[in-house]
Specification:
By secondary structure, this protein is mainly alpha-helical. The protein has a domain at about 90-138. Helices cover about 65% and strands about 5% of the residues. The chain has helices spanning about 20-30, 35-40, 50-65, 75-85, 90-100, 100-115, 120-130; strands spanning about 1-5, 10-15. A two-stranded antiparallel ribbon has the order 1-2. Helix 5 (about 90-100) runs antiparallel to helix 6 and helix 6 runs antiparallel to helix 7.
């Protein structure tokens, strides 16, 4: 797995076996990569785009959010579902099925746990059904 920085083009390479060791380090340093990726895909080239983005978010929170007070929950739910449906990666699930069936079971357990219960329950199902819990790599 490789991680490329948008700022200086440095590529960090680590193996999957090192994932558990590096995850606490990488999670703290990679938190803003999604925002950087969105800015990059939108064509932003300077850090001023972060200031503009924060102003738009603040203006949205102050002006548009109170308008949702009288919107029925079913309509808000449909807005969220239509926004999130594009985030489901079917090709990745098919690849997981082809590579490792036990990982696929953990993936589907997490998916259905999150969809039908909560994020915590989905995470609990994924962790409890993953085979590395029962067969640790030495």
């Amino acid at each position: 797995m490789t991680i490329s920085s948008f700022l200086n083009g440095v590529t960090v390479i680590f193996h999957i076996s090192e994932n558990i060791v590096l995850k606490p380090v990488c999670c703290n340093s990679l938190g803003s990569f999604s925002r950087s990726a969105v800015n990059f895909m939108a064509g932003c080239r300077t850090p001023v785009s972060n200031v503009v983005m924060s102003m738009v978010v603040l203006l949205t929170l102050l002006v548009i959010t109170p308008l949702f007070k009288y919107t029925p929950n079913a309509i808000l739910g449909s807005i969220i579902i239509s926004a999130v449906i594009g985030l489901v990666d079917y090709e990745a699930a098919i690849l997981i099925w082809k590579v490792d069936k036990m990982d696929f079971i953990a993936c589907m357990g997490a998916f259905f746990g999150v969809v039908f219960k909560s994020v915590e329950i989905g995470l609990l199902i994924a962790v409890s059904t993953h085979p590395s819990l029962y067969y640790p790599i030495l």
